[in-house]
Amino acid sequence: MDNLINCVIIEDEPVARNIVRNYCGQLPFLLVAGEFGNALEAKYFLLKQRVDLLFLDIHMPVLNGISFFNTLKNPPVVIFTTAYQEYAVNAFDVAACDYLLKPFSLERFIIAVDRAREKLQRKLPDTQQKTADDFFIKADGKIYKVAYQDCLYGEAQGNYTKVVTCGGIILTKMPFSDFVALLPAALFCRVHRSYIISKKNIRHIEGNRVFVGQKEIPIAANYKASFLKNIGAICFIAIIASALYK
Fold first, then answer.
1. pTM recorded for the entire structure
2. Sequential DSSP letters for 86-99
3. Which of 53, 104, 156, 182 could in theory staple to 176 by disulfide, Cβ–Cβ 3.0 to 4.6 A?
4. Which are the contacts of 105, defined by CB distance < 8 A and separation ≥ 6?
5. 6 closest CA partner among 31, 29, 41
6. CB burial class (10 A; 0-12, 13-18, 19+) of residue 97?
7. Which tens digit of pLDDT belongs to each residue from 71-84?
């Protein structure tokens, strides 16, 4: 799985379909790969495209959502959506990740999606996690592919994150905590509650400041020890201090 989650909405009511699409648009890691008014329309698409997550209505014409899901050989993670509470038991019988009872709020939607993310992460092979060289983020209606080696630092800016790369700046509507979770600890480290930096792109450290590219970034007192340990600087500093006091 990439850092983006490819999802498909299968819902026969246009208004309900629009609500799910709009909710997806609030989460920068969700990419709506397709929308369908009934399950049979979606079947061919699912055979041809990689889909990580389904938002699947249950009460639909021709073939209901649960019956359709049972026909899939390698089904994606599924979140069922329905106005009928009586389908809940059947939904969880097919290992649904969650069950959203209409009308549902954005908060309840986010809870369901977080469960799906956890489930998808557990399905991801360790080798894929270790060999990834880049990540994807969404901003300004576009999807950007960023190589880890080109990412200089990330900075929290309210509900957004400013991602500074060798090629420029990307401002994404992604919580800073979610952005931090995208980055491997072997390559990046926190130096401040509002900053995470690339170890590869550190120019030098001076007092409580670290210079990355052309940026001077503060090192917060509560992050300094872990930062120096992370980059292997504690032993070096201890050696210098020992030499000075001889």
1. 0.55
2. GGHHHHHHTT-SEE
3. 156
4. none
5. 31
6. buried
7. 888 889 999 998 87
